[in-house]
Amino acid sequence: MTADPSMQGDRLGAGADSGADTGIGLSSRARDGVGASPRRPDGTLKAAGEFAFSSDMWMEDMLWGMTLRSPHPHARIRSVDVSAALAVPGVHAVLTHEDVPGEKHYGLETRDQPVLAFGKVRYKGEPVAIAAADHPETARRALERVQVDYEVLEPVADARRAAFDPDCPPVHEQRVGSHPEHGTAANIVRHQPVRTGAFAGGAEVAELRGQAAAVVTGEYEVGMQDQAFLGPESGLAVPAPDGGVDLYIATQWLHVDQNQIAPCLGLDQDRVRMTLAGVGGAFGAREDLSMQIHACMLALRTGRPVKFVYNREESFFGHVHRHPATMRFEHGADAEGRLLYAVLEIVLDGGAYASTTGAVVGVASSLGAGPYEIPHVSIDAYGVYTTNPPCGAMRGFGAVQACFGYESQMDRLAAELDLHPVELRMRNAVGQGSRIATGQRIDMPLPMAEMLERARAMPLPAGRGELEGPADPRTLPGGVAGTSRGEGVVRGIGYGVGLKNLCFSETFDDYSTARVRLEVVGGEPAVLVHTAAAEVGQGLVTLQAQIARTELGVDRATIHPADTSVGSAGSSSASRQSYVTGGAVKSACEAVRARLFALARERGLVEPDHPEDGLALEGGTVVSARHGVLAPLADVLGEAAVEETRVFRHRPTRMLDPTTGQGDSHVQFGMCVHRAVVDVDVELGLVKVVALDAVQDVGRAMHPQQLLGQIQGGSAQGLGLALMEEVQVADSVIRNPSFTDYLIPTVLDTPPMRIEVLEHADPHAPYGLRGAGEPPTLSSTPAIVAAVRDATGRGLTHAPVRPEDIVGIGL
Amino acid sequence: MRVEFTVNGEDVAAEDVWPGESLLYVLRERLGLPGSKNACEQGECGSCTVYLDGVTVCACMVAAGQARGRRVGTVEGLTGGEGAVGESRLSTVQEAFVETGAVQCGFCTPGLVVQADSLIARTVGAGGPAPGDAEIREALAGNLCRCTGYEKILEAVRTAAEREQAHGTGGAR
């Protein structure tokens, strides 16, 4: 290894110059403000084991909730009898769909998912009944006594058949709440075409194929990935004297939960009060409801607090996964490697309920052609209903699947034309001013070519031959198992680039709300920031405090617990919270600042001849450019508290046209470039990732240390998808619902990761920042698979790559 | 059944324990010590790592009855009394985790700091050299983290080992 990336500490790579490129100034040079790397405010509690996660909550008289789930992926329910369960001593309630007080269905985009199954079950693991008891084991044993009479039906397990075979039985007898323009076939949630160039005029692919010097076609598959957060689904519902309920819960978006829970409970929204409990990771898996309504129903029925905690096996059934995809891609290029056309078909298996499938299709179609300029594009992306486990949000959201397809194609095209993979990508790279396949112009810096050059120029780890002495088996494929001493080990290098939309797209009213209060506490000015934004581990609490310090020039900033007593902050998804909640906090701080200046004038602390725009807040004082410090904030405020609430919205977006796929559907674009170096034991099919280096443009590094953690963490999740992570589903049944059989990368699987961060400001965004969490998850997967192809010479069309694919005995 | 053992040096007793309960359940739900985490309860993730008679184990894989009469050390035992701002005073390892950015969601953190504490105790704390990266990786291989990609965790353990080496004995147990 030529350099130890871990020694970089918080220094960013060569491109980062603490905002030098951004051209966007900061309001003050506050200590621990924007651009610094202060400690996270919850860090001490978390390291001490004292942070209250949702599964840690406890009340003296609480009961334990438990869920009975369908053993069949597809069955008619003839009857449910809970009487034997109710007779178990220690059981306080056993409820079925008949006990749902209000609406029987919920859902993020389409309310098609039953709170508790009735009529039919559509996936294995669907909740059928719930119980509350004085011990979790009592509840489990009671649920074993529930008699459910099922008429088992044939599963609808094949997504392509569900999409295209008119004889395939419908998963839903009645389509619920979907847009007719997104397709009317029984099992299609959304079909989104995109047509540009000659394809917009109805041209056939054969006409373009004839003009191309090189044509590559490929079929690719991306397996179902699990978010595998470590903190299981859990929460505590407490019945309130007013007939409402207080719910303490780990989620990604309190208000969207509240919007779904209240109607099902038959309660007004203000009687379902929610507080964010400690969240042990999310990655998309907490966008949909899990046990929220169940816990509230049992608490309201028993009059006692009810706690739910899923175990790991149940967690695999308790949340949506990343959509598995099958993709058929064709690309044509001229002799110089300039892309001429692309014809892409992407089928995404949404499983039993819609969840966010519609939006995932919107992303997969709009970004299906990737970050490349292609004159003629035809894309058809489909999201379908099957009786497989429901799929929805996971980090990268539709862009991950497409990226594996188009990057695999770029490598094949480069090989066909005898070009370096980086050279081929540079010849077709988008940049500021380019249009993606939807016609949307990239109106912010996007230095893809520079990023590719930087990735290629990064130092390479030492080759095996350059090392002295015999190889330490721990550094070889097979690792501590000692399966090789270096024989049969071949090195490979691969590249990947990914383009991701950041913030919610397609007309979503994607706002956030922040309440900021400034007052004197113990003689010092102190800021309290209150939002409903979910801290899921990403460090948003740190960022909110940094923004408050920078905008108000004070040291002390505290974050109020997130709850529904303040307006919605939107979801901790789509890499959007730094932008949107960051923007809301900034905006509320600006309003507080304006009121402070007015207060200072009223109190005669600022001379009338000082124009207001010359004033600033620095170091707990009001200062002016001409006269320096005018007054301490403590004097301006006195006993008063200044509080302002502001809503922040990013610019509006449009729906994709349902037939042409044209439209400015996205807010912002993010990009990451990866270079992977792997050693492959070609005899045993084992892979060791030696290095996984990345270049990412983030607009502005708000907190460099946390930023690197996001990029490295996202890269590792992409590594998992490249080499080991797949929820194995056969006949609609998950075969590996455990961490024994579903493997995520350990510290032995994860290599050193050198990260170069660029800061080309997005002029539309607060501080010029760009969401950073998702892009690395796109590009690391294809880079690693490309490196394995480079080492083995095999085609490798399935992510994750399996040992049998490497040794060539694939099924 | 009744189960008596010591936790972090204090005698404790849990009443009415169902024989199927794990040490993890008893710590979390009966003794008010939820610091050890319930991420997989299958012995795969290390989030519930505790000391049992000085050796690290997954508390989810130990039946409560197996702990009878033995010494248990949890993450709560690593901290030393009240710190400056009313929070617990962190150990060298815990401090390094916060400082280097090794804590994101924090669910894996308690298990990792106990495991890292043990590594430092048996290397630097036993008068040996600070562990190298390969040794650190091997020691932490049973502790899953889904957020960080492990780079900051390695940095935290290196930092803590160096500090323990500079300041004397390493590790809590």
Question: How does this model look, in words?
Answer:
The complex is a heterodimer of chains A (about 800) and B (about 170). Chain A is an alpha+beta fold and about 800 residues long. Chain A has 18 helices and 33 strands. The longest helix of chain A has 26 residues, at about 575-600. Mean pLDDT of chain A is about 95; it is low at about 1-20. With about 170 residues, chain B is an alpha+beta fold. Chain B has two domains: about 5-75, Ubiquitin-like (UB roll) (Roll); about 90-165, [2Fe-2S]-binding domain (DNA polymerase, domain 1), CATH 1.10.150.120. Helices cover about 30% and strands about 10% of the residues of chain B. Chain B has five helices and five strands; from the N terminus they run E-E-H-E-E-E-H-H-H-H. In chain B, strands 2-1-5-3-4 form a five-stranded mixed sheet, sandwiched between helices. In chain B, a hairpin with a 2-residue loop joins strand 1 (about 5) and strand 2. The model of chain B has no long low-confidence stretch (mean pLDDT about 95). The chains are: A alpha+beta (about 800), B alpha+beta (about 170). The interface between A and B is large, with 67 and 63 residues.
End-to-end separation of chain A in angstroms reads 37 Å
- The main sheet of chain B orders its strands as 2-1-5-3-4
Proportion of residues in helical segments of chain A = 10-25%
Report the sheet-strand fraction of chain A: 15-25%
Compute the number of helices of chain B. Answer: 5
Shape of chain B: globular
Please report the two chains with the greatest interface, counting residues with C-beta closer than 8 angstroms to the partner's C-beta. A-B, 67 and 63 residues
Pfam families (chain B): Fer2, Fer2_2
Domain 2Fe-2S ferredoxin-type (chain B): 1-78
GO molecular function (chain B): 2 iron, 2 sulfur cluster binding; metal ion binding; oxidoreductase activity
Keywords (chain B): 2Fe-2S, Iron, Iron-sulfur, Metal-binding, Oxidoreductase
